[in-house]
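User: My advisor asked me to double-check a structure prediction for LysR family transcriptional regulator before group meeting. I don't want to rely on an old file, so could you generate it fresh from this sequence?
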Amino acid sequence: MTNDYLELRHLKYFVTVADELHFGRAAERLGISQPPLSQQIHALETRLGAKLFERKGRGIALSGAGSALLPRARAILTQAERAAESVARSQRGELGELHLGLVSSVPFTVVVPRVLARFRERLPEVRLLIHEMATSLQIDALEQGLIDVGVIRPEALPRGIKAMELFKDSLTVAMHASNPLAAAAGPIDLHELADDDFIFYQRHLSVRLYDEIIALCTRAGFSPRILYEVRELPTIIGLISGGFGVAVLPGSIQRMQVENVVYRPLAGTGATTAVWAIYREDAHDPMVQAFLDITQCQVSKTLERR
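Assistant: Sure, here is a fresh prediction for LysR family transcriptional regulator from the sequence you gave:
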């Protein structure tokens, strides 16, 4: 055998001749004339140092070497086709990994779970890697290329980061069932919570939401008495379930039902938060674009249902 590398076209020619056991029919199937095909098979035999076909009567048959090569040649051609298809699918955004950041509250919304389900349905071979991260951490991770898309609560964004609003979310109050306001009829006024202890997210994790709640309390005539500042939504809900204070939270959190936790709407503030999808302005990854397209479609469908 020479040191020359085998070429895929030689293996393709060989497999076609082996299938047909006739140079004329093989050449016709390949769309070439018979003399060049015969030359290519001869070149392959020279490279391998073995005869691949033998004369048999008026036709040809595989030699022992040809019979040994055939299954391996088929496997190599199949692998090459799969590799090319994988590259093509990756270029179309149908294969690979998408790193998605999520704030802990958004799985309780209507839109985001639908987006995730539709993305998985449309692109089943894209591995969706979910990173549960606070808003500020997602913005940093997106800038550093650690995530491809983020789903956050509104925040000031640095240059080069774009946002798509998914929906607006009214604010609600979470409190223990023993709180006298838990059993009251209708929405409650924020000033009625002036004597309660509050539980907040740590400010650096979601600056805008933190400041908005402080501003709402100020407009209601009091400064909230903050008992705890925590990092995660389950911690807030768990503390409230244990009888520790109240919290002003996005309304979609009401889908998280926990023993002894009651949710009450706020009266008269008109205050809302929102959910954004964020991405890098210079992102050209087709998977990112596919995610954003699916997201926009689901947002439009949600608006139509209202």
